[in-house]
Amino acid sequence: MSIQQTNTSFIITTGDSPGAATLERAEELSAATGAPFIPRGRLSVAMLAKRCGASDVLVLIQDGVRLIRPGRPPLEFHPSMGYIRARRVLKGEADPMLTAARLQPGDSVLDCTAGMGADSLVFSVAAGPAGHVTAIESSGPVCALLMEGMKYYRSSVLEVDEAFKRVHVRNANHLDVLRSLPDRSMDIVYFDPMFRDPVVDSSAIGPLRTYANPAPLEAESIEEACRVARKTVLMKEKRQSSEFSRLGFQVEQRGQTKTVYGVIQIDSTT
Fold first, then answer.
1. How far apart are CA 117 and CA 77, in angstroms?
2. Coiled-coil segments, which residues (predicted)?
């Protein structure tokens, strides 16, 4: 089996016995992301990556998708706590993030740090079919994982699955996106930067840290967010984080959780 070196940092492949539907998904994702689809053949994922000169391999299987960097734990798409929170919202329970954001059905949300999409899901469920959620992810491989995962994830709750499908995922730097948007064009702009010192070791978040940008948010990002937002700019951080004061957020400390939300309220009449 002859495989040429690729010009991208990640490739797309399948399990070792893919069905026609999985092969079609792989071709569609390749077209959407620009990452090459390389048939698996009999090669291991590690050997396929080595032969292609790729650092990451996105593996599509019949009931899911996983991102593999040889030598590291795989990153599998799953909404994790986002699914539990979404179900609570559907039952009419309050969610601290939504309360802090002042979100109403029909609102538009820009999630600047999508990660695995848990918060985007909760926003999408609460905003409803009339709302609009855009999730920005700077890592190309993670963005591809998110695109595929959101599109094909199936739970036991139809409203959750539909909310995932409504999220628009973009591979970009959030500051570039913010600079490109008109004034007061989104209701809510949200940031959940990767904590430099993780609160807990999580099987879901741990592998994601391999791909995350550890740099703190730039002041310009917040300035641009305040220009773009109509209602609120929201940031999630550790309870005692100095980032809130550095970036001008008012902290809303509810309960005894280790993480809290900082809010900048926007007067859209100015």
1. 9
2. none
What is the DSSP code (8-state) at residue 37?
B
Q: Give the span between the Cα atoms of 137 and 117, in whole angstroms.
A: 9
Range of the domain at 196: 81-265
Which residue bears the tokens 């002859």? 2
Q: Are residues 51 and 109 in the same domain?
A: no
Q: Give the lowest-confidence range in 71-80, 105-114, 241-250.
A: 71-80
Same domain, 89 and 66: no
Residues with Cβ < 8 Å from 39, sequence gap 6 or more? 13, 14
Strands 64-68 and 75-76: antiparallel
Please give the structure tokens belonging to residue 248.
Answer: 């001008």
> How many Å apart are CA 258 and CA 130, to the nearest integer?
33
pLDDT at 255: 66
Cβ(112)–Cβ(190) under 8 Å?
yes
Q: pTM above the 0.85 mark?
A: yes
- Residue 38 is part of a domain; what is its CATH number? 3.40.50.10480
In the block, residue with structure tokens 């740090």: 113
Rounded Cα distance, 12 and 26, in Å: 7
How many of the other CB atoms lie within 10 Å of CB of 270? Answer: 5
Give the C-alpha separation, 202 to 194, whole Å.
13
Pairing of strands 229-238, 259-265: antiparallel
Residue 226 has which token pair? 């305040």
